[in-house]
Amino acid sequence: RERFRRFYFSLYEYYLRHPKEFLFLDQYASSPFITKIDRDDQAKLNQPIIDFIRKGVITMQLRDMPTRLLWAVTQAQVHALVRLHLQNEMLIDLENLTAGFNVCWEGIKKQ
What we know:
5 helices, 76% helix, mainly alpha
């Protein structure tokens, strides 16, 4: 749980430190301009994350479900919090970030 929390918080903080890049990549990921090469490059970049999540499944810390699905759920939630903060819709302070993490964790942890 603690390693995953550090990962979740680090991902959030990274996106906040690089808001222009976050917004660009968020838009680009949904564009029709992405090619198979782009997807393959992204898969290579995400491999350490996939390996980290897979280890959580193997050690029975995370639900036994596809690692890419666990990553998608986690990433989508972090992205939503970053967007709320960047668009000044909600202050994502430590309390709110922790609450967001707890909701995510309850959804992906092994029951």
